[in-house]
């Protein structure tokens, strides 16, 4: 009888002591699995998390603001902003704090272009600082490259420099090839653009970016078709 009680106690302990880790959250966000993301976030005690995990929580909340459905998205974005503003005051040497800040404020702009007047310089400065502190972090270079490529305030030469660095650091991120394809289209280098789109369609991509992998391949396929029609001589 005592052994039986001990057995059930161990089962209950294993159930209630189960906790999610940072990879679980990254995977759920990467799949855009809203229910699982919320379940993980609700299970965490933010104040007790290590710094990198806190940054991932902020990224999850701002992602919910960007693509979530039938949830209090503005509340989650305000929470992301609150957390990242706190980290900006306390942890000024970690690249992902600035990366998260650039995305939080960038999402405000993407949802309301009028806010570009107030937040664009913040977004660029945070992204630039993220690169300075994270020279070997592909996400920092990818974000700064995209900002320079796709916003009116960017510089094409900086976009190319940082997108190529992101590619060097991680050759298995689908959207890096898509963004490089767009860059070469802007530079009228059709052959290089086609090469980038073809690689984007070929590589499997990273598991933690499963939704973006699919999205990127759809865009690569569309743009490749357009480039091939325009640039028949190359």
TrEMBL record:
Top-level taxon of origin: Bacteria
Database matches in InterPro entries: TPR-like_helical_dom_sf
Name of protein: Tetratricopeptide (TPR) repeat protein
Organism from which the protein derives: Thermosipho japonicus
């Amino acid at each position: 009888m005592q052994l039986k009680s001990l057995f059930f106690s161990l089962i209950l302990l294993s159930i209630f002591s189960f906790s999610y880790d940072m990879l679980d959250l990254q995977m759920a966000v990467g799949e855009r699995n809203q229910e699982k993301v919320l379940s993980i976030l609700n299970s965490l005690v933010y104040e007790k998390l290590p710094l990198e995990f806190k940054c991932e929580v902020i990224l999850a909340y701002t992602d919910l603001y960007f693509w979530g459905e039938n949830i209090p998205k503005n509340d989650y974005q305000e929470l992301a902003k609150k957390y990242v503003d706190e980290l900006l005051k306390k942890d000024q040497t970690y690249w992902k704090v600035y990366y998260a800040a650039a995305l939080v404020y960038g999402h405000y702009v993407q949802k309301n272009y009028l806010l570009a007047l107030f937040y664009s310089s913040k977004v660029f400065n945070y992204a630039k600082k993220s690169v300075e502190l994270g020279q070997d972090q592909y996400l920092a270079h990818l974000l700064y490259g995209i900002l320079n490529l796709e916003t009116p305030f960017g510089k094409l030469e900086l976009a190319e420099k940082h997108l190529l660095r992101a590619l060097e650091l991680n050759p298995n991120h689908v959207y890096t090839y898509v963004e490089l394809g767009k860059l070469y289209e802007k530079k009228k280098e059709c052959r290089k653009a086609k090469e980038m789109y073809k690689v984007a369609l070929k590589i499997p991509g990273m598991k933690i970016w499963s939704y973006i992998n699919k999205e990127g391949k759809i865009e690569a396929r569309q743009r490749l078709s357009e480039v091939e029609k325009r640039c028949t001589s190359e």
